[in-house]
Amino acid sequence: MINFLSDFYDDVLNENTFIQIIKVEYENPNYIFEYHWHEEMQFYYFAQGEAIICCNFKETIVKAEDFVIIHTNEPHYIKNLSKQLVFYIIKIDFSFIYSHMVDSIQTKFLAPLSQNLILFENVVRNDHNISKCSNRIISEYFTKELGFELAIKSQIYDLMVLLLRGYVKKFYTENELHSKISRLEYFHNVFKHIDSNFTEKINVNQLAKIANMSDEHFCRKFKLITGLSTIDYINTLRVNKAIELLNENELSITEIAMKCGFSDSNYFSRVFKKYQDMSPMQMRNKSKSM
């Protein structure tokens, strides 16, 4: 995971800030922001370029003006397909729209939103009204003219109405949501171990012991959570690291293979081509030609 995303997810909204927006720009095609999740619902608004976003283990190509909804504790990743990818991450504290008086509106709509009990479609496209709301929110946030908080708040209300009317997939019960969160928390130490040691030799038995499961049960649960086998997940991290090294320095292919946890350069090249549809040398040459 690259640092700015990690820092962003760790931010805590202070009492005077109900929204945070970060502009993300990336120029490295084929780079993947690895599988991760966070405790709050977040929105991505794509302004330029194309990418693959995977939510609920389903990949979708997204492009400019697409609006993406990332639910609480929903594993997801993004793979850049462009020389210039620009998108905005929008993080909202939904408690700010609560009123001091409990009414039917708060009970019916606001409480489920803040409690993450509403499941929306992940990708919204070709919706002029949602694009208009997104652009207005982003513009008001960065220009911060007088009354920008009111303008943002009104646009968030409009955005929620549009999503509720057109893009609801399911209402969770509290038990369903709790079960989903518990499943992810159970694997927290597993993912932490993989992320810290993916350049070393890792086997299923090691990971199953961390999760206190049999190997077979662990593999089933891991695939259920990530949509990937353990080896595919680990190899994705290794290939991403290799892409960074191919683009940033002049290490040989063999040296890069060793640094990324591969036993030899031939195996590394086969795995790399499987995930990137090109050899490591082709990736390096492509990067130099840009």
Automatic annotation (TrEMBL):
<keyword id="KW-0804">Transcription</keyword>
<dbReference type="InterPro" id="IPR037923">
    <property type="entry name" value="HTH-like"/>
</dbReference>
<keyword id="KW-0238">DNA-binding</keyword>
<dbReference type="Pfam" id="PF12833">
    <property type="entry name" value="HTH_18"/>
</dbReference>
<dbReference type="InterPro" id="IPR018060">
    <property type="entry name" value="HTH_AraC"/>
</dbReference>
<dbReference type="GO" id="GO:0003700">
    <property type="term" value="F:DNA-binding transcription factor activity"/>
</dbReference>
<feature type="domain" description="HTH araC/xylS-type">
    <location>
        <begin position="188"/>
        <end position="286"/>
    </location>
</feature>
<dbReference type="InterPro" id="IPR020449">
    <property type="entry name" value="Tscrpt_reg_AraC-type_HTH"/>
</dbReference>
<dbReference type="InterPro" id="IPR014710">
    <property type="entry name" value="RmlC-like_jellyroll"/>
</dbReference>
<dbReference type="GO" id="GO:0043565">
    <property type="term" value="F:sequence-specific DNA binding"/>
</dbReference>
<dbReference type="InterPro" id="IPR018062">
    <property type="entry name" value="HTH_AraC-typ_CS"/>
</dbReference>
<dbReference type="InterPro" id="IPR009057">
    <property type="entry name" value="Homeodomain-like_sf"/>
</dbReference>
<dbReference type="Pfam" id="PF02311">
    <property type="entry name" value="AraC_binding"/>
</dbReference>
<protein>
    <submittedName>
        <fullName>AraC-type DNA-binding protein</fullName>
    </submittedName>
</protein>
<keyword id="KW-0805">Transcription regulation</keyword>
<dbReference type="InterPro" id="IPR003313">
    <property type="entry name" value="AraC-bd"/>
</dbReference>
